[in-house]
Amino acid sequence: MPSPVFSAARTPALDPSALPQHAPLVAAVRSGMVESIHYGSGIALHADGSAAATAGDAEAPFYPRSSLKPLQAVAMVRAGLDLPADLLALAAASHSGDNLHRDGARRILELHGLDDAALENSTDLPYGTAEREEWLRNGGSATRLTQNCSGKHAAMAATCVINGWPVQGYLHPGHPLQQLAAATITELTGEEPAAVSTDGCGTPLFAHSLRGMAGAFGRIAAAAARATDDGGDAPGAEAAVGLAMQQHPHMVAGERRDVTELMRLLPGSVAKDGFEGVQLVGLADGGAVAVKISDGGDRARMPATVRILAALGVDTGALESIATAPVLGGGLPVGLLQATDFLNHAS
Questions:
Q1: Is 220 helix (H, G, I), strand (E, B) or coil?
Q2: d(CA 300, CA 312)
Q3: 113, 169, 185, 227: which could join 235 in a potential S-S bond, CB 3.0 to 4.6 Å?
Q4: CA end-to-end span of the chain
């Protein structure tokens, strides 16, 4: 069933004792003094599913937002979606909206006899700052194609064509496509969803734990690594999605985006961010990390992620360029955004 319409009058007061027990993950330090603190939770999983380290409340359910896209892409590939690798990466993307992204979404539609009218996502300007400014300078306005999820939605419409399912209404939770996506997410995370809602683009959204989401990303990255080692064999759905994201990180996000840089700097990784401070990273050996920033602050997402990757033995020196950011005063650096020593290491 569709998510119920929100009503503040029907929403009970929040019980503080029921809130996730987040920990201080990232601090903004200005001239030697802590100015702001971002709380959140995280987990680092070994390939066997055991925790190498945790912080905060890694078992609490949360909405993974766009980090669900690679899992949804796995569902579509299982349903027969067969795209060139760059377009499959776009199907798992929260793209910046540059020419390659917009043209890629159109190509997915055109390959299946569709056009922009098939898209049912929300309208928006390009997500990337430079891309949005260029679009507006050229007289552009908010469209479904420029919205950051258009690659996923084009792929969803295409999957409907392939299977003979109705394209119109493909976002309804009862549609065969969304039923398949829900079942695939449950399988990959190993968890039934704790809650169901609707994402910003209109897609059904499921709440899972950081542990469950990390396990899913570790599975996708490990499948991609096995496919690479096997050579010429056609990859399965999980491997196909992972390889596409690794081979075309620009299509997953865009230039000047930290997720694109992370996959370029950390070979064998599969990374995806999500609104409200979510970051997932799967590693070639099947290990993975998951981070949720409690206040949704995007600037804290990558410093916390790089810190927790170290718990899996990852050499994070190569990630220094995305692991922190300067705090400015008068346009000059006067401090640093940096991760705290927040990890609780498993015995």
A1: helix
A2: 20
A3: 227
A4: 43
Cβ(201)–Cβ(68) below 8 Å:
no
Q: For residue 291, how many other CB atoms are within 10 A of its CB?
A: 34
Q: What gap in Å lies between CA 31 and CA 346, rounded to an integer? A: 34
E strands, the chain, in order: 23-30, 33-45, 51-55, 61-62, 196-198, 204-206, 208-209, 270-274, 278-282, 288-293, 325-329, 332-339, 344-345
301 and 277 in contact (C-beta within 8 Å)? yes
**Core vs surface per residue 144-169: b (16+ CB within 10 A) or e:** bbbbbbbbbbbbbbbbbbeeebebee
The whole-model pTM stands at: 0.93
Residue 131 three-state SS: helix
Q: Is 12 helix (H, G, I), strand (E, B) or coil?
A: coil
Instruction: Name the helix (H) or strand (E) containing 278.
Output: strand 278-282
* Tens digit of each residue's pLDDT (9 = 90 or more) over 49-107: 999 999 999 999 999 999 999 999 999 999 999 999 999 999 999 999 999 999 999 99
Structure tokens belonging to residue 202? 């209109």
Contact in structure between 214 and 226 (CB atoms under 8 Å): no
Q: How far apart are the C-alpha atoms of 333 and 347, rounded to whole Å?
A: 39
Tokens found for residue 64: 């993974």
226, 284 contact by CB (below 8 A) = no
- Nearest CA among 175, 170, 185 for reference residue 215: 185
